[in-house]
Amino acid sequence: MKEEPEAGRGRCRTARSGNLRAPLAALALAGLLSTSCSAGQQDRHSSTPHITPEQESLLATAEQLLLRECMENHGFEYQIVSDDTPTGVEEFRYLIDDPEWALEHGYGTELRREAVRARENDPNQRYFENLSPQRRAQALVAANGPAPVGLTATTPDGMELARSDQGCRSQADRELYGDLASWFQARTTADALPALRYQSVAQDPRYLEAVRPWAECMRAAGHDYATPADIRSALLAPHEALPPEQEVGLALAEAHCALDSGLARTATELEEEHGQELRERHRSALHTHRRLQTDALPRARLIVDEAEPTTVPRHRG
């Protein structure tokens, strides 16, 4: 099932920084850009203004600009790179339910390969890998602080996370959002909810019951899979890689069976139900998350506007 915004069908895309790539993984900065879909999971009863995708992009761009300035102050390069990777990569969390997308992309294997190639060609990644071991260690300290001490947050399922309150990541968050501790906790909660929502839906007896007619439909089409997850597990095995035409055929069958069996509709309804339950349960943290984002927008706009025009894309948010 393809994830869509709350107002549509429950979709949640990885938040991108406009045309910016996420910070280089080698510097362990993946947490800098949000991969949550909290902005699309608005509490309809909240008085906090909605954060649009454009505003999310503006905030992410400002974060990267602050990160770049801080890293340069420590003697390291950091480039804000335009993202030329394919934007059509979709994550169908439960199952594919879009025949047109399936016909064009199958399960998105080639699109994911293109995204991997783009990450491998990231100039920040290459820069980090070319540093000496000593300089690489210094870069990690500059980015993340000397040790994960100073900030703690508890995930909705009870796991405690720790992060340094020093380093460029924390400095950027502090400058942009003000209350670093509150931001770390709120963002941790918001980032965790999509996965919890998926787990709740996938384990719901009503979803498991709805999978049965889907499996019967797939068997009738010549594909003996008990669940959509079984297909994904098989495709991840290197020896199970399918030729493009077979991948497309399998994805098309899954999409048609998703619609014909009613599984797509059931997944959508359950996703809304469990999503609403999670939003109610974590209303306070989500409100704080949106409030801090909203308060940070003027600062983000100023940071982006003051940056060199050629180094960052322009934002309308």
Describe the SSE topology.
Blueprint: H1 53-73, H2 99-105, H3 109-120, H4 123-129, H5 133-144, E1 150-154, E2 160-164, H6 167-177, H7 180-202, H8 205-220, H9 228-236, H10 244-261, H11 263-281, H12 283-306
Antiparallel strand pairs: 1-2
Describe the structure.
It is a single chain. The chain is mostly helical. The protein has 12 helices and 2 strands; from the N terminus they run H-H-H-H-H-E-E-H-H-H-H-H-H-H. The protein has one domain (25-148, 163-306). It has helices at residues 53-73, 99-105, 109-120, 123-129, 133-144, 167-177, 180-202, 205-220, 228-236, 244-261, 263-281, 283-306, and strands at 150-154, 160-164. The chain has a two-stranded antiparallel ribbon. A hairpin with a 5-residue loop joins strand 1 and strand 2 (160-164). The model is unreliable at 3-48 (pLDDT under 50).
Summarize the structure.
The chain is mostly helical and 317 residues long. The protein has one domain (25-148, 163-306). The chain has 12 helices and 2 strands; from the N terminus they run H-H-H-H-H-E-E-H-H-H-H-H-H-H.
Share of helix, binned: 55-70%
Q: Tell me the Rg in angstroms.
A: 21 Å
Number of helical stretches of at least 4 residues: 12
Low-confidence stretches: 3-48
Order of helices and strands: HHHHHEEHHHHHHH
**Into which percentage range does the β-strand content fall?**
under 5%
Shape descriptor reads: globular
Question: Top keywords for this entry?
Answer:
317 residues, mainly alpha, disordered N terminus
